[in-house]
Amino acid sequence: MATHQDPCELCAKLRTCRDGTHPGLIAELDTGFAVLGDSQFFLGYSLHIAKDPVTELHELPRVRRVRLLEEVAQLAEAVAIVTKPHKLNYEALGNMVHHMHWHIFPRRLTDPDPKAPVWGQMPQGDMANRHLFNANTHEELLIALRTTLMQIRK
Ligand SMILES: [Zn+2]
Description:
About 35% of the residues lie in helices and about 15% in strands. By secondary structure, it is α+β, with helices and mostly antiparallel strands.
């Protein structure tokens, strides 16, 4: 069974969330940090990175796992309100980076293949660079997600 990796790129991201240097930080939640994804090809793509360095949801105590799922749903609701997608995709794969994290992708009918998973649809090379998260370009999106998420959590 896959175990938490050392070093772990998500533990490194969590450190930047905690020290305030993660440019895409949406909010700190009880069970994790909500951040915008490095690629914004699917505009509004966000992640919930678990604070607990587990690799599987069932490894969390029941109360903690229920809280985590609630917070993933809250983040997803904020993404839905802000980006108004046709559909949301939730993914917790962890095949490459085992530390548990949840991808939330807003999907649109204008996606390259709207019925297929996002993987394989991300642009490559220069096209990928044009869709990288940028603190200036995506400032309004980031603030809208943060504000909406905080309203949902009241
Ligand atoms: Zn980790």
